[in-house]
Design goal:
Elements: H1 30-46, E1 50-57, E2 60-67, H2 71-83, E3 104-111, E4 117-125, H3 133-156, H4 163-190, E5 194-199, E6 204-207, H5 209-215, H6 219-222, H7 227-230, H8 238-249, E7 253-259, E8 264-273, E9 276-283, H9 285-302, E10 307-313, E11 319-326, H10 328-334, H11 338-341, H12 356-368, E12 372-379, E13 385-396, E14 403-412, H13 414-428, H14 438-449, E15 459-466, H15 469-476, H16 478-495, E16 501-506, E17 509-514, H17 521-539, E18 543-545, E19 548-550, E20 554-561, H18 568-584, E21 590-592, H19 595-616, E22 620-629, E23 634-645, E24 649-651, H20 653-663, H21 666-685, E25 694-699, H22 701-705, H23 709-720, E26 727-732, H24 740-753, E27 756-762, H25 769-772, E28 779-782, H26 784-788, H27 794-810, E29 813-817, H28 822-831, E30 835-837, E31 845-846, H29 847-855
Parallel strand pairs: 20-21, 23-25, 25-26, 26-27, 27-28, 28-29, 29-30
Antiparallel strand pairs: 1-2, 1-4, 3-4, 5-6, 5-9, 7-8, 8-9, 10-11, 10-14, 12-13, 13-14, 15-17, 15-20, 16-17, 18-19, 22-23, 22-30, 22-31, 23-24
Helix pairs in contact: 1-3, 3-4, 15-16, 16-17, 19-20, 21-23
Length: about 850
């Protein structure tokens, strides 16, 4: 056992110099030995760490004996004692600058027989504490004993005649000390807690009767025995850890510990002192059991689906004004957190629609102390109300006289209360936002268009779509999305007049119909724009979605109308087109319908129809552009799709490919290109001069994502009996934007069959080195935009050089497309480029012209 302060004997380890002298007696003098013993007794009987005796010699405080402190601290402690020598009952201000570690101090004067002040007995501690009356009396007795011992020392040399009187005094002092020890023992035996002390070897030195009862062992069996040997069940427990730490740090501790052999919980307080540790303990097993049962009950109530609320009551029987408990269901249903509800009145949940008559009936039941049931309109934190069926019962005190608490258990019955009204409401209103739905909007729009034509009035129809709403639903859940839609509905309603209509068509689409904007179309348009800009501003303000702060914007399409319009469908279509134009313009903006916009949409629809007919009538052709090696010989060709429209003529791929992608027609088109290219490879395989040629086929993202794409490729190769390595599939970098693992898996399957894989227009999209090294590629294709200015733009030259070096380091081939000059070819040649494609060698040709080119190759054909 170790303590934080070393015990320094009055005859050992004294400092070389001090502000206070030491007692002018030899260390072996009986008084010093007795003083040293009594200071230890004083410290132990009071449970403090420090005791000291200071005597007066020539009106100067002199250290005589002490325990519980290190030598460097003695001077400050003596100074502290000297400061209260004349008035020991007046405690000094702690901590004192010369003894900063002291938090408790009590001094007792040593008064001689003649009433003269001989010195001071002081007890101190580094922790705040107080002394009992018995301890005060005991220390006073020790002070008298020390005074007697001191007078004995002073009188021994000159007053041998008074030896008998001194002996009597000493015997009386010893009797007093014995009586003190007896009183202390009686005090310890009569405290309600168990108490025992251990020495610095963890041996029992004292055990009270209550301690014997709690431990189930008599003191005669334990005194002098090690606690670890007698009670091995506490080894490696929290008790051993806590008490050991208290002794090591010389700090008192208080904790609860389980003694497993007895299956009992004890509350323990440990107080270290210089020679050991004093421990108070009591059995708290029943208290812990009650606490655990209360915790289980509270946990069960907390997780009920029903709302539970408990309030205090006053002696008059009226409900208390303070909520003291709410469960989790209360928080979920009301939106109020536990900290927000506690100490508040239950009227926190009341609002404008809460029935006053029902509240009065509940109050009358409270006054009679009777349970009561009611159906109330309650209000959530966000201001929304709901119906709650509540049962309230009183809880009386033990005597059954006064009601101390009221327990309310509630259930949300909103659905039951509104079920009948919802049948009619849902027919014309959106259940989420409570706005008019499509059917009611159509009715009101029909009424607006039916206004007498002799009194025409301008109106406006706004189609509103929330930007990036799907992202909110996907990331935070539909609950947050619904909260957003509800707040959007509220804000839209706040932006228009009561005579206007705000409707929700579904999803995140809203329609605002503004009526009676005047007779002047320009003025009406200006008013519609002002309302639209107000809506843009309102919907861009932050939203609080159940504690989450969210920002959103919208896109608005506007079309004007008057009584000259015949078709509601046309109006909605125009507003929808204008909204998509706003989306295209960058979102968070407003666009009016433009007939040119309608023309563009119609043209796109017509082109899509022509595409379908072109597929049926086989209007599509494949052109081939040769790819040559470093020696200038043709190694293969890239298949390029062309559309020979019977009316439009040759349609550029830039015009029809986007429409094919959007409509999904790229799938049959891509399959036709793949099959046609494989048939051409099969034809070339029959001739020795073309058997080694390969064909590159461009694959769109949508085509590659098709679940059966790999099987379709393999079927085309099998049907034409073509070697897979002669087919080169050129993939775009946009494939790498998402679903990377699926992409790699499909590429690996194709690679395993022998198909050659190339990244088209490398450097223009989503490629990264981390992605590139994982892809089972064979070739990179340098985009023609880099090749075009390769001799003029150092950046393009550096990019081309880097791509070639990267491909070489990864063991991949390189094709440069768009090569139009010898200088470009020479530059790429010097950098190590293997293959070239461009007008320098040959432009794209139909298969017949390509066959002629292969027989008579020439530059730029």
């Amino acid at each position: 056992m170790s303590v934080s302060l070393s015990v320094i004997d009055s005859a050992a380890q004294r400092p070389a110099a001090s502000l206070h002298r030491e007692a002018s007696v030899p260390p072996s003098h009986p008084f010093l030995r007795e003083a040293d013993r009594l200071t230890r007794l004083a410290a132990r009987s009071c449970g403090v760490s420090i005791a000291m005796v200071v005597v007066l010699e020539d009106d100067q405080a002199v250290f005589s004996a002490g325990t519980g402190f290190a030598a460097p601290a003695r001077e400050g402690l003596v100074t502290l004692c000297a400061a209260t020598l004349d008035t020991p009952l007046c405690a000094p201000t702690l901590p004192a600058p010369y003894a900063p570690g002291i938090r408790f101090y009590r001094g007792f004067q040593m008064i001689g027989e003649d009433g003269s002040l001989l010195g001071l007995l002081a007890v101190m501690d580094t922790l705040p504490r107080s002394l009992s009356r018995e301890q005060e009396e005991g220390l006073q007795t020790l002070a008298r004993l020390l005074a007697g011992q001191l007078e004995l020392r002073q009188q021994r040399h000159a007053l041998d005649a008074e030896r008998q009187h001194l002996g009597t005094t000493m015997r009386q002092t010893q009797e007093d000390a014995h009586r003190l020890a007896t009183r202390l023992s009686i005090t310890l035996e009569n405290i309600s807690e168990g108490f025992y002390t251990l020495d610095d070897h963890w041996r029992f030195t004292y055990l009270s009767r209550e301690g014997e009862r709690l431990l189930g062992r008599p003191g005669t069996e334990l005194l002098g025995k090690s606690i670890w040997k007698e009670f091995p069940g506490i080894i490696n427990t929290s008790f051993a850890e806590q008490v050991g730490a208290a002794v090591a740090g010389n700090q008192q501790v208080e904790f609860e510990a389980l003694y497993a052999p007895m299956n009992k919980w004890f509350e323990v307080r440990a107080y270290p002192y210089p020679d050991g540790v004093a421990i108070y303990f009591r059995d708290v097993s029943e208290r812990r059991k009650a606490r655990e049962q209360l915790m289980l009950l509270e946990t069960s109530i907390a997780h009920l689906n029903d709302i539970v609320l408990i309030t205090e009551a006053v002696h008059t029987g009226k409900p208390g004004l303070r909520i003291i408990f709410v469960n989790n269901a209360f928080e979920r249903h009301t939106g109020y957190g536990r900290d927000e509800a506690l100490d508040q009145s239950p009227r926190l949940l009341c609002g404008p629609l809460t029935q006053r008559s029902e509240l009065d009936r509940i109050n009358r039941a409270f006054l009679r102390g009777e349970p009561v049931q009611a159906e109330l309109i309650m209000y959530r934190k966000d201001g929304r109300h709901f119906w709650m069926e509540v049962d309230i019962v009183p809880v009386a005190d033990d005597a059954g006289v006064f009601f101390t608490h009221w327990v309310a258990v509630g259930r949300d019955i909103t659905r039951r209360k509104v079920a009948e009204s919802e049948i009619m409401h849902l027919a014309f209103y959106d259940p989420l936002t409570q706005l008019p739905n499509r059917q009611l909007l159509m009715d009101r729009l029909q009424q607006a268009l039916a206004h007498p034509p002799q009194l025409p009035r301008e109106g406006a129809l706004m189609f509103i779509d929330m930007d990036n709403f799907k992202t909110l639903n996907d990331t935070l859940g539909h609950h947050k999305g619904d909260l957003l839609l509800q707040q959007v509905a509220e804000r839209l309603t706040g932006c228009v007049r009561s005579a206007d209509t705000v409707a929700r068509l579904g999803g995140d689409e809203f329609v605002v119909m503004l009526e009676n904007l005047g007779h002047d179309p320009r003025e009406a348009g200006a008013r519609a724009r002002a309302v639209g800009e107000q809506i843009l501003a309102a919907l861009s303000e932050p939203y609080l979605l159940a504690g989450y702060r969210h920002y959103s914007t919208c896109s608005i399409g506007v079309t004007s109308f008057n009584q000259n319009h015949d078709s509601i469908g046309d109006l909605l279509k125009q507003a929808d087109l204008a909204m998509y134009q706003a989306k295209t313009a960058g979102r968070n903006t407003l666009c009016f319908f433009d007939p040119v916009m309608q023309a563009a949409v119609s043209a796109s629809a017509a082109l899509q129809s022509d595409l379908r007919q072109g597929l049926r009538e086989k209007q599509f052709l494949l052109y081939y552009q040769p790819q040559v090696g470093r020696d200038g010989r043709m190694m293969g060709a890239e298949a390029l799709l062309r559309w020979n429209h019977p009316v439009r003529g040759m349609v550029s791929p830039a015009d029809f490919i986007p429409v094919a992608e959007e409509s999904g027609l790229i799938l049959p088109l891509g399959q036709w290109v793949l099959e046609t290219a494989c048939r051409q490879l099969g034809a070339w395989a029959q001739r020795p001069e073309t058997a080694a040629l390969s064909i590159s086929v461009n694959v769109s993202v949508r085509q590659f994502r098709h679940p059966e794409f790999v099987d379709l490729v393999m079927a085309a190769l099998s049907d034409t009996n073509v070697s897979p390595h002669k087919l080169k599939l050129e993939l775009t970098e946009s494939l790498l934007a998402d679903d990377m693992e699926i992409t790699i898996g499909k590429m690996a399957k194709l690679k395993a069959t022998g198909v050659t894989l190339s990244i088209d227009d490398f450097g223009m999209g989503y490629s990264s080195l981390s992605c590139l090294k994982r892809l089972p590629l064979d070739q990179l294709k340098i985009d023609q935009s880099f090749v075009a200015d390769i001799l003029r733009d150092p950046n393009d030259a550096a990019i081309a050089r880097t791509i070639i070096g990267l491909a070489q380091s990864l063991g991949l081939g390189v094709v440069a497309e768009g090569v139009e000059t010898e200088a470009q070819r020479d530059f790429l040649y010097r950098q190590g480029c293997e293959s070239y494609q461009g007008y320098l060698f040959c432009k794209p040709l139909p298969i017949e012209a390509l066959e002629d080119f292969m027989k008579n190759p020439g530059p730029g054909r």
